[in-house]
Automatic annotation (TrEMBL):
E.C. numbers: 1.2.4.1
PANTHER family, per database record: PYRUVATE DEHYDROGENASE E1 COMPONENT BETA SUBUNIT, PYRUVATE DEHYDROGENASE E1 COMPONENT SUBUNIT BETA
GO MF term list: pyruvate dehydrogenase (acetyl-transferring) activity
Organism: Chryseobacterium jejuense
The protein, known as: Pyruvate dehydrogenase E1 component subunit beta
Gene3D superfamilies the UniProt entry points to: 3.40.50.920, 3.40.50.970
EC category: oxidoreductase
Entry-linked SUPFAM superfamilies: Thiamin diphosphate-binding fold (THDP-binding), TK C-terminal domain-like
Required cofactor names: thiamine diphosphate
Name of the gene: pdhB
InterPro entries membership: DH_E1, THDP-binding, Transketo_C/PFOR_II, Transketolase-like_Pyr-bd, Transketolase_C
Highest taxon, organism lineage: Bacteria
Function description: E1 component of the 2-oxoglutarate dehydrogenase (OGDH) complex which catalyzes the decarboxylation of 2-oxoglutarate, the first step in the conversion of 2-oxoglutarate to succinyl-CoA and CO(2).
Length: 826
């Protein structure tokens, strides 16, 4: 019997396409029946995991629970068209899908609920993310790429609503790029660009700007992307009618529907969450459009239910009336699926065939409960055993000390009374014991100290590793190659240096591409990419719309798929549009997967010392504080910037490189080894030696600091000028402390607000480098005023540190210590 005939009798739309899931194939009714029952079983297992997960939270064994119950059928249908090499970018309710593609088991589901720190038992995040946040591992243990075409891929989930959408755009666009771009090893990332990026989002989150920006860009770019909207009618307690201009998101999106013959827009498919045959049809069509025509598709899944409400934080009975609750019970997807299976019959060769009886489905239900419970128990036992091992390694050592100290005995008694014990309880006891026995030098205490240090290192790795790369391609490991100059080296505008270096980059690395506002046709607003699009094509040197959040997202997604993207944000001020994605997604992806995924994206921007409130900001402290996990590189000229690009293209970490906006027309000597020379990260440069005071700065401010240092020389003050170059990582060799040791005075200067980046720099120098030991005067910071810079040259002068400001304030340091030699200016 042909499955196509069976499905046709159910009046299913059927596509006989070799490149899509539902193909005309010979399959027996028994195989068809087995597939249906396997789906039912998987749906029931997922549901039982949800039920059991909620109980684990309410009984205190897990901290929080958010589950995918009610969404089982559409996720099963989506999984059927999800192939090796495909990527999903979603949120925290897709457990059935993760089960269906073998990216999750009942055991790993509960291991995540308990925050088990074992990568083997909880491969998505090693206990770092709350439940429901799924991921597959893209990297080998050494940080090298796996063959992503040989596995089904989930890019690590994030919680911020619609935050997963910008990344989705890049994951999809990578397929478009791979249709034309080939490089050594590219076969590990794509098979002729045949992959689809699948996105999932709750209906209420479609009110977020990231959703609209992403869909708009996808429709313009025509990328193979399928977005599933799980529409349960609410955003926690707020009904859909209060979320958007139209309660029906499909109606709102109708203007996005592509027209015949036009290469814009998307396909929109609406389907009920409880209609299994219609769901198979919907996703078969969606896959066809996306995979064979490279068209974005929205699958709007309506009538979704949430049997347990939004999460364990509350009850949906508080905001749903009895009629709604009754409807949800009746139209629960698994209830309807069960009805469909029981009522299904077909005559084959004169014999009536059914899929399953009530008794057979009851047996599957019982088996699903057992499987969920078995997974939960195994996960709990493993989690508890890890704690027991810790207890057994620490407690005997504490007991050895209880006879010597009453505080230790009391702390141990309190610990033994705890009903359940976590790692923190063991560590608290150990630290309390070491505190109580301070000053004691005994073998017993030394044993405890040694064990405490040993287990602390283990937990440091469990909870704090992989914020930055730990591989051989870590940026700090990239060898420095100095610029080479000769008699024939020309003095050119800075923009020519960066342009010609980019030319070498795009020639050397076919997987490198750059995109942004005005980046392509005109070669960026400062001509740093002049002629590059004409030479390397619009696919690699691309213009985008004005949409910074998804420019960043394009970069994240493409970097996750092995390309080397450079996402250009036209001005530093506009990076504010990107901060959410930088902070929540890019900066955390390596950490939140404990080294399982990476996105070595380079963010290119320019800023500082322009004029006006909206184009001359210096939000560096915000970038530093919100984006730990991203390297922050602040070159003082365009040659240094070019060297940083050459460095980071060999590294496997994300970075933001801030080019000096006022440097494009300043003359620099062009190196002979363009595309080859590198600037090391975490390395400062002493650009002027001095003996009386250390002046620390970066970026465009360096020129003004240098002018001030020259003026100070005329006043009898010898200033040493240090260009930080790299804020993260910061002065890895602690060379600044050595300078302060020589000068005994420290001044930190930048154009951020007071206490901004200068606060970070001071903390690094005084606390981490211990340079306070060498100071003869209070450290001084010279920053901009706290308001945005006013317009025009006078606005810059009165808003940001000027040469006059620097000379006067630094001179005042010396007036305070020796007023006779340095009489007061004012």
């Amino acid at each position: 019997m042909y499955i196509s005939k069976i499905l046709e009798e159910q009046k299913l739309f059927y596509l006989a396409m070799q490149t899509t899931y539902i193909e005309t194939q010979q399959i027996s009714f028994q195989d068809f029946k087995n597939q249906i029952l396997e789906d039912y079983k998987l749906g029931r297992i997922s549901r039982e995991m949800s039920y059991l997960g909620r109980r684990e939270v309410l009984t205190g064994k897990a901290k929080f629970g958010i589950f995918g119950d009610g969404k089982e059928l559409p996720q099963l249908a989506m999984a059927k068209v999800f192939r090796n090499g495909d990527f999903r970018s979603g949120y925290y309710r897709d457990q059935t899908f993760a089960l269906a593609i073998n990216a999750l088991t009942a055991e790993s589901f509960f291991a995540q609920m308990y925050a088990d720190t074992s990568v083997e038992r909880e491969p998505a995040s090693a206990g770092r993310q709350m439940n429901g946040h799924f991921a597959t591992r893209s990297l080998n243990e050494d940080g090298s790429w796996k063959d992503l075409t040989a596995q089904k891929n989930i890019s690590s989930d994030i919680s911020p609503t619609a935050g997963q959408m910008p990344r989705l755009l890049g994951l999809a666009q990578a397929s478009t790029i791979y249709k034309s771009v080939k490089f050594e090893g590219s076969e590990k990332f794509s098979r002729e660009g045949n992959e689809i990026a699948f996105g999932t989002i709750g209906d209420a989150s479609t009110a977020e700007g990231h959703f609209w920006e992403t869909l708009n860009a996808a429709c313009a770019l025509q990328v193979p992307m399928i977005v599933s909207i799980w529409d349960d009618g609410y955003g926690i307690s707020v009904p859909t009618k209060n979320q958007r201009a139209k309660a029906d998101i499909s109606e709102m999106l109708s203007g996005f529907q592509r027209k015949e013959g036009e290469n814009q827009g998307c396909e929109i498919i609406q389907v009920r969450a409880w209609d299994y045959p219609a769901l198979l049809d919907a996703y078969a069509r969606a896959e066809h459009f996306a995979r064979t025509e490279s068209v974005p598709v929205v699958v709007h899944v309506v009538d979704v239910t949430q049997p347990q409400g939004h999460s364990t934080s509350g009850s949906h009975e508080r905001y749903k009336n009895e009629a709604r609750l009754a409807w949800e019970a009746e139209f629960d997807g698994l209830v309807k699926f069960r009805e469909w299976i029981i009522n299904y019959s077909i005559e084959i060769d004169g014999k009536e065939e059914v899929i399953a009886t009530t008794e057979e489905l009851d047996a599957i239900d019982e088996e699903a409960k057992k499987l969920a419970k078995t997974g939960q128990k195994a996960a709990w036992d493993n989690y508890q055993n890890a704690i027991k091992e810790l207890v057994q390694s620490i407690i005997p050592l504490v007991e050895n000390l209880k006879g010597q100290n009453t505080e230790v005995e009391a702390a141990l008694t309190h610990f033994n009374k705890l009903v359940s014990k976590a790692k923190k309880d063991v560590f608290h006891l150990a630290r309390k014991t070491l505190l109580a026995t301070r000053g004691t030098n005994s073998a017993e205490r030394n044993q405890l100290m040694q064990k405490y240090n040993e287990v602390s290192e283990i937990e440091k790795d469990n909870y704090s590793s992989h914020l930055y790369s730990q591989s051989e391609w870590k940026a700090e490991n990239i060898k420095e190659i100095k610029p080479v100059y000769s008699d024939s080296s020309e003095d050119v505008d800075g923009r020519v240096v960066i342009r010609n270096n980019f030319d070498k980059i795009f020639e050397k690395y076919p997987e490198t591409l750059i995109f942004g506002e005005d980046t392509g046709n005109i070669g960026d607003v400062n001509q740093g990419l002049e002629g590059m699009q004409e030479k390397y094509g619009a696919l690699r040197i691309a213009d985008t719309g004005i949409r910074e959040a998804t420019i960043l997202g394009q970069g994240i997604g493409m970097a996750m798929r092995g390309l080397k993207p450079i996402a250009e944000i036209q001005y530093l001020d506009y990076v504010l549009y990107c901060l959410q994605g930088m902070s929540d997604d890019l900066a955390t992806v390596h950490y939140r997967t404990k080294g399982g995924q990476k996105a070595p994206l380079i963010i290119r921007t320019r800023g500082h010392r322009l004029e006006g409130i909206w184009h001359s900001g210096s939000p560096m402290a915000g970038i530093l504080n919100l984006s730990k996990g991203i390297l922050v590189l602040v070159p003082r000229n365009l040659t240094k910037a070019a060297g940083f690009y050459n460095t980071m293209l060999q590294a496997d970490e994300p970075a933001i490189i801030v080019e000096c906006l006022n440097g494009y027309r300043l003359k620099e000597k062009q190196p002979d080894n363009l595309g080859e020379f590198t600037v090391p990260v975490g390395k400062i440069e002493v650009t002027k030696e001095g003996k009386d005071v250390t002046l620390v700065t970066y970026g465009s401010t360096w020129r003004i600091v240098t002018e001030a240092a020259n003026e100070l020389e005329k006043l009898g003050i010898s200033a040493e000028v240090i260009d930080i170059q790299s804020l993260i990582p910061f002065d890895l060799s602690h060379e600044i402390a050595e300078s302060v040791k020589k000068t005994n005075r420290l001044v930190v200067i930048d154009e951020d607000v007071e206490g901004g980046t200068t606060g970070f720099i001071l903390q690094q120098i005084l606390e981490k480098q211990k340079a306070f030991r060498y100071l003869d005067s209070d450290p001084l910071t010279i920053s901009a005023n706290d308001h945005r810079p006013a317009y025009a040259s006078d606005g810059d002068y009165f808003s940001k540190p000027s040469t006059d400001d620097m000379v006067e304030k630094i001179y005042a340091m010396f007036n305070e210590t020796n007023p006779q030699k340095y009489p007061a200016i004012f």
